[in-house]
Amino acid sequence: MKTIVFDAGHGGHDNGANGFGLYEKDLCEDRVKRMKIILENEYENVKIILTRSDDTFLELRERAQIANRAGADVFISDHKNAFNGKARGFESFIWNGGVGAATRSLQNIVHRSVYNKIKKYDIPDRGTKQANFSVLRNTKMSAILLEEAFIDNRADNNLLQKKEFSEAYCRGVVEGLAEFLGLKKKADQQNMKSVYKEDDWMSEKLDKATKEVWQPVIERWTDEEKQHNPIGKVWLERIKNDELECKDIIRLLGHERLRGLK
Ligand SMILES: [Zn+2]
């Protein structure tokens, strides 16, 4: 079992930065909750702890202590940046007081994973950085602090309000963490891949096509749709029964088009 602590920056009377009607503290709370849901839904043997899951104030020291007491494997502090209204972009931090190779590796993997997901929104990459932040200094495990984007910049603020952007960001963090910790995907998702038989001459093509077609489809589903979408259920049943065929993919795409037209 791997334990991840997500720390939503600020909270309560501490709003953090703000811009264009948004408070940093609210965006941070939203992101850590989404990351928790993705990890719990899709990965095995992972325990997620949130330092706060509502709008309450927490001392910086207490945030680190929550992770230390839990014996967490990694600590992720989520923040939104602000400067002069002009600065833009995503950046990540580790402690500048001498960290091990594992922490540098965590930063590099998560940073790359996040930026790969969000670069299509033309947001600048401000790079991997180091700083003397309390939560990084006082945590005993590998710890990083993420600044998703600048809340006081109009273009970045627009992105922060965009559902697709925040999902890409959260997924980038989750996939980076999964890679760093070696987390395993849950079985129903493995089945999607393993359904193709080795002796099937189409298997390679289908496998590639499914990855390209199916994965973005799932990523667009809300959590409720993942639970209740009838095509999702049918699809999963057929996979279990080893009945997956090319026409199912076509049906699924047709269904997706209808959804888009609603
Ligand atoms: Zn902050």
Automatic annotation (TrEMBL):
Gene Ontology biological-process annotations: peptidoglycan catabolic process
Any one GO molecular-function label of the UniProt entry: N-acetylmuramoyl-L-alanine amidase activity
Domain MurNAc-LAA: 64-178
Keyword Hydrolase: yes
InterPro entries: MurNAc-LAA_cat (IPR002508), N-acetylmuramoyl_amidase_3 (IPR050695)
The protein's name in its UniProt record: N-acetylmuramoyl-L-alanine amidase
One Pfam family, short name: Amidase_3
Organism of derivation: Alteribacillus persepolensis
PANTHER family per record: N-ACETYLMURAMOYL-L-ALANINE AMIDASE (PTHR30404), N-ACETYLMURAMOYL-L-ALANINE AMIDASE AMIC (PTHR30404:SF0)
GO cellular component terms given for this protein: outer membrane-bounded periplasmic space
SMART domains attached to this UniProt entry: Ami_3
Keyword terms, alphabetized: Hydrolase
